[in-house]
Amino acid sequence: MLTILFDGVAYGMLLFLLACGLAVTLGLMNFVNLAHGVFAMGGGYVTALLMNRAGIPFLATLPFAFVVPALVGVVVERLLYRRLYGASPLDQVLLTIGLVLMAIPAFDYFLTDQPQQIHLPPFLQGRFELPGLTIGAYRLFLVVVCGIIAATLQVFLVGTRFGAQLRAAVDDRRVAAGLGIDVGRLFAVAFAIGSGLAGLGGALAADVVGGVDPNFPVKFLVSFLIVVAIGGSRGIAGAFFGALLLGVLDVAGKYYVPSIGAFVIYAVMVATLLIRPQGLFAKSGT
Amino acid sequence: MSAALQARGLFKRFGGLTVTDDVSLTLEPGARHALIGPNGAGKTTLVNLLTGVLRPSEGAVVLAGEDVTQLPQHARVRRGLARTFQINQLFPEFSPAEALAAAIAEREGRGDDMLRGVGSREPIVAEIVALLDRFDLIADMDRPTHTLAYGKQRLLEIALALACRPKALLLDEPAAGVPESERRDILSALAALPSDVAVLLIEHDMDLVFSFAKSITVLVAGRILTEGAPDAIAADPRVRAVYLGEDEHG
Amino acid sequence: MSAREAAEAARVARHLLRRRRWRPLEIAAWAATLALILLVPSRALLINEILILGLFALSLDLALGYAGLVSLGHAAFLGLGAYTAGIMASRGLADPTLGLVVASLVAGLAGLVTAPLVLRGTDLTRLMVTLGVSLMLGELANRNSWLTGGADGLDFTIGPVLGQFPIDFAGRRAAALYSFAVVFALFALARRVTRSSFGQSVQAIRQNRLRAGALGVPANRRLVAMYGLAAAYAGAAGALLAQTTQIVSLDIFDFHRSADVLLTLIIGGPGYLYGGLIGAAIFVGLRDALAGATPEYWEFWIGLMLVGLVTVGRERIEAALKRFARRLRPAPRREAAP
Q: Considering its fold, how many domains does chain A have in total?
């Protein structure tokens, strides 16, 4: 049972990494970015290609898995997203769905649609056997890495001036702008970081979800939305706990009660949206 | 005969703030009553309380003898209470004719008819024509509302409220935002309102108030300062101090 | 009434009734579609697909274009209708018309029940709630494989329409004709409903909910009714899909389906009833045309079209198209005032 819990926590932390960018975008810019998964997929492909075609070791590819999607994010934000910040959610949904529809065949075309396998280095394979608890090495690695990143983000948000400006802008954009905060640049940087983290998450997730394939954005879009719905979009703490909850529920559910499966998760999401639209873990009041 | 509309001891509090403070008001059928007061006095809040957009913290709203305090807005409209808004609230894509048709259809209880419209009903079309004529909208009757001049839109705002055949009509600053050249149309429209409808006019334009109203209530900081005939109000030093005194010197 | 008033009354009546009459272009389009089915039976399958997707998009138009309720989960009702029709057929109730009616009723009921969920909150909440509901239904279908066949899909054969016209593999053209008849009838009904006082009041709510309330319109009640109707229409489309293809599987509840129908409607344009059908023709037509050239990549072009549409601005394109359409329509006769 503890093993299940541990696996769930590992999955949850991974989800957090993937989804926190979406939470920030939604909370900060009120922008519904359904194409978020594309950046994750991009990061996964960067890692897979660097490893499989250039022989670069797994860990060394990870910085690229962050940087490349971050840069692409900056470009996309400047060119397209920026125009729709004030638009209706429907228009934003349509734009980002359009991007997903373009991205998947594009990836398909330039790379095959066979899932790219990522072969973990030997020291990340294997497992540790403890009484009552089996710890997979990679899962442990995930927990550690994601935990460090989460902690770093929290420190960054709370401790640095940029973080303070970000939090101010999330709380009230107009007032923040009135205080002289360059909200536009803030958005661009936040979006880049969010996309980069998604890319990193995609690279790390490849082993867990069975390879990187072009359908990743759609398959996981719902999970991202659930994390954001349950965790709220005011900050990353909510997303963190929301992701953990979802991860544990998902893994435990699949193991213990396969007949209920994802139904409970979807129901929790709908119920949360209706009862506490700001998310289960966010502070009450918008 | 009972009053057309009554407010009985209305209070509205938002947290620690009392926006409406023990307001009582009576409109007899055919009344021409004005509500004046400085900005922030709570005039629009009072209108929202009367129409059901807001629920009072205390007090009652009585429409033609019936206590409607617990009724939602659309139920009060059905019982004969209509209003206009300070900023035009119209249907941008509908033409004036279509908007009036929708209002009349609702009043006649046809809003649930999923198969038929009102275009083929002669009495309703005749009523639409009469309203369009009265408010000089006949020439623009088939154009989308958002293409109309602001003054015309303001007239449509009043026409829509009248299409409900109200017993009591609340006009929230009908002349607001209307350019000087089109103001006269508003004035004549107000003068031509049906004599059996009780009208409560909220306005800042004192010319409009004194030419229209037979009685005036003065609202300051949510409370009624005084009420009475226009001459008495104009002469009252308290009113001058609080309100009119700001414009006139000496 | 004076002569002038009579003339004005006639003008107003004509204006209010202007959308009642079927335009020659409309009649021609429907007739041409029917002719296409009859004369080019090799394309019957394709036209059937366009009609069904068009009906599905039409149902979303009622919810989105008329009632103003966005949805990322409209496939929930499509799936409900499809499974209802399929399950009925698999239990021996072979006549498609019965399946069609029951499927619509089931979906419509589901629409009425879920409508209060959809009326709460912002557009963003709506998008996520509708998505959640459709996924929940998909999971329910998955878990109850004794009823739905689970991941293997439903296994059934369909009987002849009204006992006379086989629409299974032997009757491809008959299937297309069956779909045509149903879609046309439902379209005509929707046309009637949107022009009715009810339909006008729903559009009034969409344009200005505050003003509608101030005119006595019970907004929530009307929106629930329209949403229920939209759900019933989607159920009918699902039934047609199941009955004419003899396939029902779990992917009918996928996000992909809801997303596809949304962009089909947007491409054609919401709010005038034909948008769904035109969008479906473009969507399926494009896929068919590109199938030879670049089979799996046709969605790229749809995505590009969508990105272009949204970036340029749907209202601006709509306004431009309206100006163009006005030039095509003959100028209304204006009688000079006496």
A: 1
